[in-house]
Design brief:
The protein is α+β, with helices and mostly antiparallel strands and 143 residues long. It has a domain of 94 residues. Helix content is 20%, strand content 22%. The protein has a 5-stranded antiparallel sheet. The longest helix is centred in the first third of the chain and has 15 residues. The radius of gyration is 22 Å and the shape is elongated. The N and C termini lie far apart (56 Å).
Amino acid sequence: MKKKRKPMPVDSLEFPPLSKKDAAELKRSFADFADPKRYVIVSAFSRKFCLYYRPADGDFIMNEVTPETLFKRKAEAQAIAKLLDGKRKIRSKYRLQVTAVRKTKDGVRFIEPVRGFGSSKKGWRPILRRKDKRPNTTANAGK
């Protein structure tokens, strides 16, 4: 028979009590960590051709959403998209969009639709390039 451990009393842990500001910051950071919703800046041309902004090096990636392209907060993504739109030399009616995605074990899934050139008002979800996780069996076939 396994003996149950008694929990240590809270008074013996020697941690100072958290201030209201620290407790609020801890709750906010935990909520950010637990929420799988992220935001991505999209320049959409068609379902099969979308560019996603990667702020680490200031480039756009074609048809692939990587962890570097994801933003935790929508306000940050919108501010960067607005700044990038302001730098365009040629104005067009199609601007950069901030779209919500959900992180999954295989990558991301679009929550909100994207609108591109000539698309309907309803919008659509882009087709992403998926990384093949199967082992390469053709490399060893000739040996």
